[in-house]
Amino acid sequence: MWYRRFGAVDTTSRSNEITRKKLRTRLSILSWPKPKGGPHHAVCHFCDTLHVAEPIPEGSRVDCICCGATLFQNRSASLVRVTAFSVTALFLMLVVHSAPFISMDAGGMRTVLTLPGAAKALIDDGSLIVGCGVALFTIVTPLILSGGLVYVCGPLLFGKSAPGAKMVTRWMSRTEPWNMIEVFLLGVLVSLLKLGHLAELHFGVGFWAFAALMFCMAAAVAAIDKRELWDRLEVAGAP
Length: 239
Fold this sequence. Notes:
Shape: elongated
Helix content: 55-70%
Distance between the termini: 47 Å
Number of helices: 8
């Protein structure tokens, strides 16, 4: 009888713990947790007006009372969206870096080009700065940004913080302006318009994956407000 009672109590305790974890996970996904203390303030980046930052409902935003600029937004399902788009971007990077980007047929010769191959070809032809720039802005920077978003926002879905999450977030903020996927894609399209009269061009799987990658990266960055991200890190106890 003693073992049965002990087992019943243990089962109930475990059930309550599971329920608390589910509730904590749900709250971390749906709500924007605010750090303890206050009041919290927000400064307009355009006119430097100081505002009291009160919690707002999901799907709404706060505008500056002086110039009308957006101070911050509480985007719907922010953590789920940023994690999903970032994981998709990482998968697309594998396709972009391994699949053919563009193939050209001219004079009976066929040339197949990949994105890393393009950077390597520029370096081999003597354009070291341009080749390194292509590799940095279209391969390294997007990888750091998308990988960092998964590393930081993935554990936040469960109300936890990854080791060094704040440092990774700072590096993401620094590398975000250098994410130039759309600039590279625009340059490729302009070059293809000029090469279309000299050779027969075919878009490979890597090209379409690169176009999808551009939209996924933009959606991942826009899925969560920076103020919300820092608040979640502080509430989760990130060092």
